[in-house]
Amino acid sequence: MNTVFPEGFLWGGALAANQVEGAWQEDGKGLTTSDMQPEGIFGKVVRRKPGDFCIKDKAIDFYHRYPEDISLFAEMGFTCLRVSIAWARLFPQGDEPEPNEAGLAWYDKLFDELAAHHIQPLVTLSHYEMPWGLVEKYGGWASREVISCFERYARTVFQHYAHKVKLWLTFNEINMSLHAPLTGVGLQGNPGKTEIYQAIHHQLVASSLAVKACHELVPDGRIGNMLLGGLIYPLSCKPTDVFAALRENQNWQFFGDVQCRGAYPGYMKRYFRDNNIKLQIEPSDLTALSHTVDFVSLSYYMSGCATAEPELVEKLRGNILDMIPNPHLQSSEWGWQIDPVGLRTLLNMLWDRYQKPLFVVENGLGASEKPDADGKINDDYRINYINDHLVQAWEAINDGVELMGYTYWGPIDLISASKAEVKKRYGFIYVDLQQDGSGSLRRSRKKSFYWYQQIIKSNGAALKR
């Protein structure tokens, strides 16, 4: 059997603006939901004052050091880098009629630098942040007004970068809004189910309008959605547990169903009826939803279990979701269960469901790390993790799944989203930065840097199977 990945398979890494850029108030950038949650996506809102410290304010200073970092990515052989645009760099309050030219210019420089190294950008329009002005003025995505604000932003970037960016994503892990509604849809306090799903509806409409705009303004481009791949197994073979797992999976598949099929599925209509959730849906919304994505992208870190008797087991938190642990799996330092075969299962599931190209745009292992006496980090645990997941991705391709590429999450150490930690390191590249903000920010290569370089160079043939 052929051991290489398909010709044209995209290899690279994935970053988010609010976790790497820093420069949180430079060049006219406005405040975002991320800036107002200095302790991460589950943290309380903090009214920022001059002099307040947040590790994300500087992050790894990608805003000023991107040429060095992109050079390192090119040394590894990247053919793709997933990045996000900070909406508030272009529209500081979110609803301005015209964009901030300084923000546009910075991303021009970023995309030009990538082009100079023959790295294709994959750009996420909204990755765990939105302008804080939209939260204060409109109540976030609870308001229909935000749809037009997002459409204006999307059309602006499509028009401006059409000749530089051909691959786009709308909302990062759009299904996480159910679990972190401030980060996902800009809702403060403790919103109820109706309020959350109404905001999600507005976001789904906005996503579809962005797809329509991309097809109009970037005719040779492709645009996808992005799902948090929360694969759930039944805890036992009891029929009730199997059905509980089906329902748990539908909780996140719903977002993909709307974005890929263009309509609300029957199981969600029943859920709304059973829970007395009545959404305000305009006829024009249904027309908008008919604009479906070209491909499906996903994150995958771990799997979990479901049971019809959840009171009998204890859940654990991993990658935003609370999951019942699988007794047959081991866990990472952060308690995230490691399940490479789950990636193959998930890719087959999504391919069978949507028959659209898939793209693994996040997968990675976070660990506490520091250089040894020789200044080296021998991260064999990361190498083993990625190797085993890539082998399963390759198996899925041989199963018939059309897989566009793989962008490892956090190819350079960054600030974690959930708790704004720098000690949880994912990178192939170590950044000298500590939680109190100290450190030289010097970049250095870990052992995995050279390993991933060989995997890309061989187009996957160097994987241990």
From TrEMBL:
Sorted alphabetically, the keyword list is: Glycosidase, Hydrolase
GO biological process: any one? carbohydrate catabolic process
Which sites are catalytic? Answer: 362
- Gene Ontology CC annotations of this record: cytosol
User: Is Hydrolase tagged as a keyword?
Assistant: yes
Q: Which InterPro entries match?
A: GH, GH_1_N_CS, Glyco_hydro_1, Glyco_hydro_1_AS
Q: Give one Pfam family, short name only.
A: Glyco_hydro_1
Care to name a GO molecular-function term for this sequence?
beta-glucosidase activity
Question: What PROSITE patterns is this protein classified in?
Answer: GLYCOSYL_HYDROL_F1_1, GLYCOSYL_HYDROL_F1_2
User: What family classification does the UniProt entry report for this protein?
Assistant: Belongs to the glycosyl hydrolase 1 family.
Question: What is this protein identified as?
Answer: Glycosyl hydrolase family protein
**Which species is the source of this protein?**
Candidatus Pantoea deserta
